[in-house]
């Protein structure tokens, strides 16, 4: 679990920075300001949750917990659904993809809840 979450954190961090640079330099002239902001929102949430995955991996070293595993899985799912749907929406123009975005947001919320519950149950 720890290795998987560290690899996912590195992958999502790397691709988040790359997608942010792509948006700033490659998409500025081809997307509306509104769509560019939506794309950047996807990047922002991806990078935040890449760091959350990194934190989950580090916590799992000291607090092995099923809740941490679930939190990491939900953060990963959230990145794929939330950020992924925003990227696809802005690049394809298919507005119906926006239906997926709240599912990713819900996964993020559930992931943070699981992380909090894991911390609540932590006893040294």
> How does the overall form come out from the CA principal axes?
elongated
What is the succession of H and E elements?
Answer: HHHH
- In DSSP terms (H or I, runs of 4 or more residues), the helix count works out at 4
Residue share in helix: over 70%
Rounded mean pLDDT is 95
Strand fraction: under 5%
Report the structural category. mainly alpha
Could you list the spans in which at least 5 consecutive residues all have pLDDT below 50?
A: none
Query: Number of DSSP strands?
Result: 0
Whole-number count of domains = 1
Largest sheet: none
Transmembrane segments: 44-63, 70-91, 97-122
InterPro entries: DUF423
Family: Belongs to the UPF0382 family.
Protein name: DUF423 domain-containing protein
């Amino acid at each position: 679990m720890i290795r998987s979450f560290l690899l996912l954190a590195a992958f999502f961090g790397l691709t988040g920075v790359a997608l942010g640079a792509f948006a700033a330099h490659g998409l500025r002239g081809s997307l509306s300001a509104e769509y560019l902001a939506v794309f950047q929102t996807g990047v922002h949430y991806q990078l935040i949750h890449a760091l959350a995955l990194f934190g989950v991996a580090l916590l799992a070293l000291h607090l092995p917990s099923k809740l941490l595993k679930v939190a990491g899985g939900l953060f990963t799912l959230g990145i794929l659904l939330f950020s992924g749907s925003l990227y696809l929406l802005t690049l394809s123009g298919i507005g119906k993809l926006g239906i997926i975005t709240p599912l990713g947001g819900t996964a993020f919320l559930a992931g943070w809840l699981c992380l909090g519950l894991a911390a609540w149950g932590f006893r040294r």
